[in-house]
Design goal:
By secondary structure, the protein is mainly α. The chain has helices at 3-20, 25-34, 39-51, 57-71, 76-85, 90-101, 106-117, 125-137, 142-154.
Length: 160
């Protein structure tokens, strides 16, 4: 197979890859590397898809942040880790988080989680520890978790 046919085959594979959801340049590059393409050819294909508007890290970042924060109620730390692993710059992540958190602050997300998962009207030490672990795993900062649980104890019925 000559180089142009191989390039076309790779481009078709990337079109299928992008048809499911937006991807980052890093994800596309990794997919092309698995196909054993040379780096200069990978760069060409990525540039072509960027110029056509099929690849846009900023758009991906905003969509992914919104999805993880609203659908999965994840905290900033977990969202940031997810996006860094996908090759998004820290600056883009911070900008997208700042924009989203003006609409849905982390404190509100914690309230929603607690409201959904709360087993009883009172909060004993065991349940408080369970919430703290759950919220930490979802990527909320320890200080925010402590503050939220403190407010929950003070206002037992306001979050129900």
């Amino acid at each position: 197979m000559d180089e142009s046919a191989f390039k076309e085959k790779a481009k078709r594979a990337i079109m299928r890859f992008l048809s499911f959801r937006d991807r980052t340049e890093k994800e596309v590059g990794d997919k092309l590397r698995k196909m054993n393409l040379e780096e200069d050819l990978i760069g060409e294909i990525i540039s072509e898809f960027k110029s056509l508007g099929f690849l846009n890290n900023e758009r991906f970042t905003k969509q992914r942040v919104r999805y993880l924060a609203q659908e999965h109620l994840l905290g900033d730390l977990r969202i940031k880790a997810d996006l860094l692993a996908k090759g998004v710059s820290e600056e883009q992540i911070n900008d997208a988080l700042k924009e989203l958190r003006s609409e849905l602050p982390e404190e509100e997300a914690i309230k929603l989680i607690i409201k959904r998962k709360k087993r009883s009207s009172s909060l004993d030490r065991k349940e408080e520890a369970r919430f703290a672990r759950m919220l930490r795993a979802r990527g909320f900062s320890s200080s925010l978790i402590c503050e939220s649980l403190k407010h929950l104890k003070e206002e037992k019925t306001s979050w129900q």
